[in-house]
Design a protein that fits this description.
The chain has 14 helices and 15 strands. The protein has about 400 residues and is an alpha/beta fold. It has 2 domains: about 210 residues, 3-Layer(aba) Sandwich (Rossmann fold), CATH 3.40.50; about 170 residues, Rossmann fold (3-Layer(aba) Sandwich), CATH 3.40.50.2000. The strands form 3 sheets. Strands 3-2-1-4-5-6-7 form a 7-stranded parallel sheet. The longest helix is centred in the first third of the chain and has 26 residues.
Length: about 400
């Protein structure tokens, strides 16, 4: 097998979103196969890599280009003005990424969601052109497509239509497409005539999540008291996650008649429950996405209105254990160690990583039967979730012949 100098490219890495977490797994596997891997992103979070700030999707330019591509030219006089802005932003990315490729002799790309969600259209245009110029082999790893998530949209004009047709996603023999569920595979074929390989999201079920010296002070730090019943919500705080349903769920469990049952019978692990004990919702995910602030504020108002005790612990949680802003940061997995129950009411997911995480943690889970889950769950011969990262799923897929 040829040893590749590979770049994995995304808008951001080293965060707690599903794409960032999945990137770390792919990187680990590629390195285990002997390849040299560099992460490249517009925001590095807790990861090491190459920073190209223009790749980030939450810049004024990136957000403006996305909005005006999908919902109308609100910020431009005409399509020509939009095209000029798109080309200018793309040119900067092309120049910086080309320099990186040449200096590091990169011969293979993995583009994570770059050619699918259009979070920053200039990135798709720039990377598409770079692949053509350097004749680079590329895996377009798409966790979701813009038409699956955004609801009502209308490509704003000739520039948007041309970009979508040519690069989102690209029909290019150099680009090999990997999706994470059968629905995306079917839609990609029907919409674009593009074949793809389904590579489900994975998880290392052998990793140990336990109380240890590092996380032993986690409950005190985030505000969990002895005897509290902890309902964990570990996703990003965005509207499609339907977190308000988790609030309703915790409120219902905290009703007087249900508390009385807990006080009488105790918990399944033998713990006692008294009038002083709390039933709390712990929200470990972040709310920094640019279009989520209104939802976040509405959610906080609902929590206060419903009388639910909730802890927003984003500042203490990261993709990995770390130390920043003068204090210790726990990994997302530390939050599972101290949880009693997982809530996952998301109404749409490309895969559903938190379901795997709850299974790994051996915790009960409340979830909404989102379409991908419902499809797999109701199939007569459903696909078994493989229990170890060491299965080297990429080596077993048709994509292995590229590496």
């Amino acid at each position: 097998m040829k040893q590749r100098k590979m770049a994995i490219l995304h808008y951001q890495v080293g965060e707690m979103d599903g794409v960032s977490l999945e990137i770390e797994k792919w990187k680990l596997i590629f390195e285990g196969m002997g390849h040299q891997v560099t992460l490249v992103a517009g925001h590095l979070g807790t990861s090491e890599g190459v920073l190209i700030e223009e790749l980030y999707h939450h810049t004024p330019v990136g957000e403006r280009l996305r909005h005006n591509m999908l919902w109308g030219l609100d910020d431009y006089e005409n399509d020509a003005a939009y095209r000029a802005d798109l080309e200018a932003a793309s040119t900067v990315i092309e120049e910086k990424f080309s320099k990186f490729i040449e200096e590091n002799q990169i011969d293979f790309l993995v583009a994570e969601n770059i050619f699918s969600v259009m979070a920053n259209p200039a990135v798709a245009l720039a990377i598409g052109r770079i692949i053509e110029r350097y004749k680079l082999q590329c895996i377009a790893h798409s966790h979701d497509y813009f038409w699956e998530k955004i609801g009502d949209y209308s490509l704003s004009g000739p520039t948007a239509i041309e970009l979508a047709q040519k690069y989102v996603p690209p029909r290019n023999l150099l680009v090999h497409h990997a999706v994470i569920n059968q629905q995306s595979k079917k839609q990609l074929c029907e919409r674009k005539g593009i074949d793809s390989v389904v590579v489900p999201n994975i998880f290392d079920f052998d990793e140990k999540w336990v109380v240890d010296e590092y996380n032993s002070d986690y409950p005190e730090t985030v505000g969990i008291r002895p005897g509290d019943i902890v309902f964990l919500l570990a996703t990003r705080i965005v509207q499609r996650k339907a977190i308000e349903l988790a609030v309703d769920f915790v409120k219902a469990l905290n009703a007087p008649e249900r508390r009385a049952q807990l006080e009488e019978k105790g918990l399944s692990d033998g713990r006692k429950f008294s009038k002083e004990n709390r039933i709390i919702l712990v929200l470990a995910g972040y709310s920094r996405d640019g279009d989520t602030q209104e939802y976040f504020e509405n959610l906080k108002r609902k929590i206060e209105r419903e009388g639910v005790e909730a802890l927003f612990i984003e500042e203490w949680i990261g993709g990995d254990r770390d130390f920043k802003n003068g204090h210790k940061v726990y990994s997302l997995w530390d939050s599972y160690v101290y949880a009693d129950f997982v809530t996952y009411p998301s109404i749409w997911e490309g895969w559903g990583n938190q379901l795997l995480e709850a299974l790994k943690a051996k915790l009960p889970i409340m979830l909404f039967e989102y379409p991908v889950y419902a499809r797999v769950h109701t199939r007569k011969h459903s696909t078994t979730v493989q229990p170890a990262l060491s299965l080297m799923f990429l080596q077993e897929s048709p994509l292995a012949q590229l590496l």
